[in-house]
Each structure stands twice: as structure tokens, then as C-alpha cells.
DNA sequence: TGCAAATGGTTTCAGATGAAACTATAACGT
DNA sequence: ACGTTATAGTTTCATCTGAAACCATTTGCA
């Protein structure tokens, strides 16, 4: 008789991470989509530009962990919607200089507090200890991944 | 002068979860794809069937947090590859009865230990305390999400 | 200086994915 | 028994996404 390995999917860390993350992201995505016609990728670009206005698409990609194709597309749509403006860098004509328009800032100022509220609501399920540990653990895994990819 | 909200994307929990989860999943996906011609969705189906052989597609969907369309497609491909067999339930002819073939078991027995190894490698970045807290935190958030969706 | 390689960014193509429509069967209420 | 409603599963269509090809510009170096 053959005995097989036993793997309980529900207990499997990558699976749990994935399901949790997707559930959270999708809930947020649906709201942004319906209220602001804004996809998650677009929102990430906005969020980064709200913090670092005037950077190039390349830097947006780095700071959002998105690839350059995704950034290119998100920016194209954001420009079409008049939320982002694209210029060309003086010192390097390949590079773009991305800035938020008035309209872009307006959305940003609406969505940012909403995002923080989502985060608070999620964290509210955890007590103070758990929140601290989670933050620390994510930071560690994050660093580990960065290292991994750096090779 | 207008002061805008400040939202540091890198510190934003849903974002961190998403990036971490995607990085982990993609690393695993690439390996399964190249070594076994197996997508993550297909792997999840295999994993559940390895544990609960003979269940219906509907139950696979529940246990994998995938929607029924995704399950249907994964099963179709797994059948084409001769890894899964589909029968019809006696008591309800709508329901399928999904079982692993010899070939399916063979893959399962290869992939399962590999999956566990991936998990170990990820957890190795954390000390024992952190591992315990992570498990507990994910469990709590998981329950919270379930509740959320149940409404 | 001039040419090969690298970089920033966009486009194209092919496969993945989700929502809604659809088919078949079963359950429910009268 | 019979029509309505619900459920299991598949198919279709439109959108999303990633990989690779591509263009323009810059960098590195002989």
C-alpha cells in the first residue's frame, strides 16, 4: 500500500498569503473601480506620484513593484482621463517626467484617506501585539524576497 | 498652500501583502510550470484531490478559494494531460466525481514535498516566535475575511 | 568620433481571467 | 405531477497581463 505525502492546502503559507491578499485587494479594487473608475495599478501610480511628483516611469515601476509595461498602460489611461501629465526629462530625452494634474490631486486626496481607512479596518481585527509582529514579519519577508530577487 | 494626505505605499498593508504574495507565488509558479507543465490553479486542484479524492468540482472550488470557472478550466487541462479522471455522481448527475489518475498521483507525490520545501525556505527567514505569530495572525485575518464575505 | 550595447518606454501577440449567458439536472412549493 | 427556482458545470466574450519585439536615445569604449 502506498502512502502519499499529506499537504493541507489550507495550512500552506503561500496559499494562505495568496488568498488573503487577493481577497483584500479585490475588495479594494471593486470600490475604487466603481467610485473612481480607477484600477489598482492606476491607483498605485497615483499613490507614488502623490508622494514623489515628477519622477520617471522607470522609478514608478520600481516603487510600485509593477513592470514597465503595466506602468506604461496605467499612465496612458491616467493621461487619457486627465489625471496625469507627461513631460520629457531635460537631461535624458528617453525619460518621462510624470506629474499629477489638478484632477489627479483631487482623486488622490479622495482615495488616500479611503485607502488608509481600509488598512485600519483590516488591522482592527488584530490586537496591538499582533499588529506589531505583522509589521515586523512582513518587513523581514520583504527584505528576504528582495535579496532573493537580487541574485 | 494645500497640504495633501501622505500615504507611503511601501508601508501600506494591502500593498505589502499583495507584493509579497505575488512574489512568492510567481517564484513557485515558474518552477511548477517549467518542471511539470503545471499552473498554480492546476496545482491547487491536484493538491485538494490528493487530500480529498473523489470530490465534486464545486467542493474543489470551495477548498481552493477559486471560482468554478477556474476550476472547470484547470480540470479540463488536467484531464487532457491524463492527470485527473472525471466521473458523474450517482445521486446527482450534475455533480462530477474527480479523482487522480496514476499519473496524477505521481505528479502530486513529486510536487507536494517541493511545495513544503518552498514553505520551509520562506519560514526560514523568521525565527520561531515570528513563525508562531504569523500563523496566528493569518488565521485571524482569514477568519475576519470569511466573516466579511459571509455578509 | 563612431559603433555596439544598454536603457526608457511603447506596441504587439498570445495566453489567462472574470462576468454573464447557457445547458442540464435537481429541489421546492403548490 | 408540474412549473418555478436553484445548483453544477461549461462556454463565450471582453478585458487584462506578461513576454518579446520594437523604437528612440544614451552610454561605454575602441
From TrEMBL, chains A, B:
UniProt protein name: MarR family winged helix-turn-helix transcriptional regulator
A GO term, aspect molecular function: DNA-binding transcription factor activity
SUPFAM superfamilies (UniProt xref): Winged helix' DNA-binding domain
Organism this protein belongs to: Tahibacter soli
The HTH marR-type domain, residue ranges: 10-143
Pfam families: MarR_2
Entry keywords, A to Z: DNA-binding, Transcription, Transcription regulation
InterPro entries: HTH_MarR-typ, Metal_resp_HTH_trans_reg, WH-like_DNA-bd_sf, WH_DNA-bd_sf
PROSITE patterns on file: HTH_MARR_2
Amino acid at each position: 500500500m502506498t502512502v502519499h505525502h499529506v499537504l493541507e492546502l489550507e495550512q500552506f503559507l503561500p496559499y494562505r498569503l495568496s488568498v488573503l491578499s487577493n481577497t483584500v485587494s479585490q475588495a479594494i479594487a471593486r470600490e475604487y473601480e466603481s467610485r473612481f473608475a480607477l484600477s489598482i495599478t492606476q491607483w498605485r501610480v497615483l499613490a507614488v506620484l502623490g508622494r514623489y511628483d515628477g519622477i520617471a516611469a522607470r522609478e514608478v515601476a520600481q516603487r510600485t513593484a509593477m513592470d514597465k509595461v503595466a506602468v506604461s498602460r496605467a499612465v496612458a489611461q491616467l493621461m487619457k482621463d486627465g489625471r496625469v501629465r507627461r513631460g520629457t526629462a531635460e537631461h535624458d530625452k528617453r525619460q518621462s517626467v510624470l506629474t499629477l494634474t489638478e484632477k489627479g490631486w483631487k482623486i488622490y486626496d479622495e482615495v488616500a484617506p479611503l485607502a488608509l481607512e481600509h488598512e485600519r479596518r483590516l488591522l482592527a481585527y488584530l490586537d496591538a501585539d499582533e499588529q506589531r509582529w505583522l509589521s515586523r514579519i512582513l518587513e523581514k519577508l520583504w527584505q528576504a524576497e528582495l535579496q532573493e530577487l537580487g541574485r
